[in-house]
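Standup notes
- DV: blocked on the single-chain target, sequence here:
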Amino acid sequence: MRLFLNVAPNAAQEAQLTQIGYRAALTPDNVMAYRLRASFTEDDAQRRVGLKGTAKLYGKRTLLVAYLLRKPLATLRVWLGV
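- DV (later): unblocked, structure below
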């Protein structure tokens, strides 16, 4: 996971994802968002409480077919009761 702070968008900060929320919730800014929890790999003086930014998550590679058929397969599982 990388964090791009609004005060320094060109200096990405590395972090390790530790927890992901089950479903999206409404934030105080009236935006639906998932709550994530991460721990930073190193200390930085630019990070302070209250700063905003964007987090980019990275994961394992997957097959394109599996990604494209994800929703139809989920619908089929619901329909079949599996």
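- Follow-up: The CA atoms of residues 19 and 37 lie 5 Å apart.
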